[in-house]
Amino acid sequence: GWAAALVARIEAGAQAAAGPTRNARPADPFAAAAQAVASYCAEATIDTATGRMRFAPTSNIACRADVLAALPFDERYPLAAGEDRDWCARLVASGAALVFAPEAVVAHHQELDARGFWRQQVRYGRGAHRFRSDHGSRLEAPGFYTGLVRRGFAEGARAGALVCLAQLATAVGIAQEAAAARR
After folding, report:
1. Residue 161, CA distances (Å) to 3, 33, 83, 151 in order
2. Is the pTM of the predicted complex or chain greater than 0.85?
3. Which residue, 38, 44, 37, is CA-closest to 59?
4. What distance in Å separates the CA atoms of residue 87 and residue 74, rounded to the nearest whole number?
5. Cα–chain-centroid distance for residue 174?
6. 94, 176, 83, 92: which is closest to 134 by C-alpha?
7. Would you tell me the crossing angle of helices 29-43 and 114-135 to the nearest 10 degrees?
């Protein structure tokens, strides 16, 4: 039913549709923290009045073929980090509708250890730097980060602490990418 739910939204007129991605490994604090970060970033952009959103991870998104042809993914994002933010920003800027399909649920099976989690979050920081450079955007308002940490702790104390650590790793990635850009 996952794909059918996305298709139904597109057939109803949306240019793109996205559903929620859920952690399929709830006992794993690394997977819980990583999914909390990704899910919160998407859910924070949903306009409940219209059902539109500004961002969705590409692990659970669909669009019409003509939309993808007009807005291909930017290959300058080589790290599997930031490319979905860039694509969604360009999609929304084009006037296309990215609608939330809450019934299109995907279970995400991430297998992360401490090193893999750290590396993933550093990559996200590197992608965030490129995204912010490309789009001229700034950091989110403080309330966004407060909500993100709350979301992490809703998954348990260990996941909450890891969400805090993820923010440090993201900052490291941003600094690494900023240094690389200056070279």
Report:
1. 34, 8, 26, 11
2. yes
3. 38
4. 7
5. 16
6. 83
7. 20
